[in-house]
Amino acid sequence: MNTKHRKTLKAIFDKPTSASIVFSDIEALVVALGGGIVEREGSRIKISIQGEQWRCHRPHPGKEAKRYQVEEIRELLHRIGVIP
To answer: What's the mean pLDDT in 11-31?
Structure first.
């Protein structure tokens, strides 16, 4: 995990929940943690990491993750034991 991944991880776990995290940074963090991303129909993706899954839509037209998406990825990371 590089410095950018650590900053993204910190931003995900910060309170109050940020709405300015670039979604591609979240995807890069998941890959760095050993997860996978499967492209689905349209803007849908499935993120799998350590047996856990999260299905979501990539944000559009903007590139920042919505607050609820940040909260959902935080919950996923918490379930697999990732602590910032």
So the answer is: 95
